[in-house]
Amino acid sequence: xxxxxxxxxxxxxxxxxxxxxxxxxxxxxxxxxxxxxxxxxxxxxxxxxxxxxxxxxxxxxxxxxxxxxxxxxxxxxxxxxxxxxxxxxxxxxxxxxxxxxxxxxxxxxx
Amino acid sequence: xxxxxxxxxxxxxxxxxxxxxxxxxxxxxxxxxxxxxxxxxxxxxxxxxxxxxxxxxxxxxxxxxxxxxxxxxxxxxxxxxxxxxxxxxxxxxxxxxxxxxxxxxxxxxxxxxxxxxxxxxxxxxxxxxxxxxxxxxxxxxxxx
Lengths: 110, 144
Fold this sequence. Notes:
Chain A is α/β, with parallel strands linked by helices. Chain A contains 4 helices and 5 strands; from the N terminus they run E-E-H-E-H-E-H-E-H. Chain A has a 5-stranded mixed beta sheet.
């Protein structure tokens, strides 16, 4: 799992590459919760490079979104690939997460 | 014609990637829809994660044996471990809305196994715990 982070105004974009399973999920949770703890409350996860997610990865997003929204921020998902979208769909997550086709769309109006 | 495949790995989270890669490799020479391959990887990943986290809890990590049989209209999967008995039970779709309000999102992995696979069975004996399931290969228009 690789994560590259960049800042656009008050929004932090995390570009993830790899698979998110029970082994790699902590590598995603740590940086995201760290950003929230430092007051970076607007997060965009660019999932264009993520080819697979399991329930462990879904729990990461659930936990980060809960924490972000409690603090008045949010996590938006961008460029979700079809295999990841399928897992999100069958898990019932799609009603609670904001999805965008690409990072630029996710940044707009955040 | 039936093809059989088998891989054994340590019951460690780092092995999950190997199991998924093995499934992709086994399927690549057959006309198996990509969605079916994804769901097989997901179900095996979730089952193995449960074995690693719960089955081998407080034990030295043992091994997990993943066996795979590809038949013309179905794929049969068998996962064997030697840890504590952790029998998967059918679980309804977790209430994600409630999980946003509380802390727990229990049973999501089990739900994904039962939602995507067919004929799930669990047996335990002195020779280990064995989870078997089948994935029927359907055309893209009728795929589960």
